[in-house]
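Problem statement: downstream parser choked on a complex file, so we are re-checking the raw output for the shikimate-3-phosphate run. The parser issue turned out to be on our end (a line-ending mismatch), but while we're here, posting the original submission so the record is complete.
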Amino acid sequence: MIAARSHFSLLISNFKIIMKRIIMIGYMGAGKTTVGKALAKELGITFYDLDWYIENRRRKTVSEIFAEQGEEGFRKIEHNMLHEVAEFENVIISCGGGTPCFFDNIDYMNEQGQVVYLKASPETLYKHLMMGKGDRPLLKGKSEEELITFITEQLEKREPFYSKARYTVDVSLMDNYDKIKITIEKLREILEL
Ligand code: S3P
């Protein structure tokens, strides 16, 4: 009887390892991709960035989709693609900053996996975005002053969606390699990885 029980719990723990699906959300520049990618590498599981997935499937950049179909068109595509990637097992998925804030995406994410909100102050996000503004259509053409106002206002609107995540990690201090490491350690602790 005892032997049968320990075999059963071994099966359960194996099941837990196989069935990982971690979903990273947060504002642009929070470090979702950096942290998600590094954590996936450590765990030996596959990393997906939703924007890259969309670009691959559509054979167009996010900027091109915004230019051709507007934000509304992009959000529909994003919603559909989220439903594709969030079916994969044993993965870490990094979403776009706006993904949780449209349709019922955040509720769906919570049903599908362990959702983590990488929270950062507008000042930290601004700093990160200035270091690598990337090709983000929503930020294009904004002066530094406009950018900080935009981030502050948009973050306030998005916070109610982000805060629906089951887990939150504050990444405001994450500016160098050590801090990325600390964030990953924190994630491993709270997600029991
Ligand atoms: C967006 C964030 C971007 C990308 C698109 C829209 C947003 O992703 O999905 O430009 O609305 O915040 P990142 O958060 O990875 O930059």
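For whoever reads this later: The longest helix spans residues 62-85.
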